[in-house]
Structure prediction request, 120 residues.
Amino acid sequence: MAPESEKHDPGQDREAEIERLTQELSGLINEAGTQGREELREYALSLIQAETETTHVEEPPQQEVPKQELVFNPLALSIPLVLLGILLLLLFPPVGVVILLFAVVMAVGGGLYTLLFHRR
Prediction:
């Protein structure tokens, strides 16, 4: 067991430093004279309070947000297929007709799905 004189307590070092700074600050305030002494004392106290305030911000509990399922709606895909079908109808008519028919089927299916199963 080590003697108490050899033990090093960081809390005592901190207290000694605070006492030294307090004496230095009080000396500076006392040098100001009687006119500004009270104002300097209040200013020093407000600075110390402002610097040592700890604000504990509590994080709000995170609520679980239900994940929405990604729903595939054929109506959305039919729009670019119509545009592609019109372009291919001019360049290569048989392929353009097939793509346009496919787009119409998807648009009708997507429209029915939206009307029948869309949740509000």
Remarks:
- The chain has two domains: 11-51, 74-117.
- DSSP finds four helices and no strands in the chain.
- The radius of gyration is 39 Å.
- The chain has a mean pLDDT of 81.
